[in-house]
Amino acid sequence: HGIAAPTLVGTTSLGGRLYDFGAYPGMVFPRADERGASRVVGDVYRIPAALIPVLDEIEEVYPGESGLFVRERRDVECAGKTYACIVYPVSESAVVRLPRIDGGDWVAYRRARDASDASGMSGAAGASEPTRNGLNETPSS
Q: What is the pTM of this model?
């Protein structure tokens, strides 16, 4: 798209639960009545404003349409600073029948899942390397 590449700020975690959609994860934020909510691990990236519509397209977030993901802004602590970030959670109803990812780390989970799948199938092709959930710092105006 001719847009500058995102810059990794660091890895952090947010309160919530992570679920396995197969090729990608889905995060659900904790309900107001949830105490001691688990954490979801993710990377924080500094991104140019021009990348936001591209991310919306990837996550299929369109104005006036409901879809699997929604775009939200959350303050996220990372490397001793607070960043206003864009996150793309899913609704509680979207994960009813999906496996929960204990520990909230998609990369570690995928590596273990793919290794387990490969050991159970001879000649199985290797899966692509998973990427961590991205938390994208919103640019300042």
A: 0.79
